[in-house]
Amino acid sequence: MNDAQVITVTMSAVAALLTAIVTTIVTNILSKKREHEADWRKLKFNVYQEYVSALSGVVNRKDGPSAEARERYANAFNTICLVAPPDVLTALKDFRSAIRVEGKASGPVDDRRGAVELSALFRAIRADVHPSRIGDDDTFMFELGAQ
Question: How far apart are CA 91 and CA 61, in angstroms?
């Protein structure tokens, strides 16, 4: 082999080695990013699940919410503010406004505005925890079960 062939073979080997290293690094970075996004989505899902559970304890109750239920709801509401994107926060604020009368929770979410805002909130939450979802039917109305 002459010097030109040695240089060509060496350059090819170095290029192959660099390609393998770069591919490994990029794959690792993308994998870590996907893991982080999945962990973040799982955390948000748990926060949203706690909110809906706490919400069930303060609305649609025949005997009204207990002090413990109101505190749980307030904590869940405030926790959402730490993890939710602006779309969810806007829908949350609109829903809360729809069910409040003179600074107090109005009780059942049976009026039209409350139901519309609840559905908008649930759609925003669903879009946040499942971003690959094509979208929900905007005419479908979510509702809470009565206790």
Answer: 23
Amino acid found at 19? T
Alpha-carbon span 84 to 128, nearest angstrom: 8
Measured CA to CA, the distance from residue 132 to residue 118 in angstroms comes to 22
Contact 74, 97 (CB under 8 A): no
Contact call for residues 114 and 144 (beta carbons, < 8 A): no
Phi-psi region at 60: left, alpha or beta (left = phi > 0; alpha = psi -120 to 50): left
| 45-79: pLDDT as tens digits | 999 999 999 998 887 667 778 889 889 999 999 99
Say how far apart CA 36 and CA 44 lie, in whole Å: 12
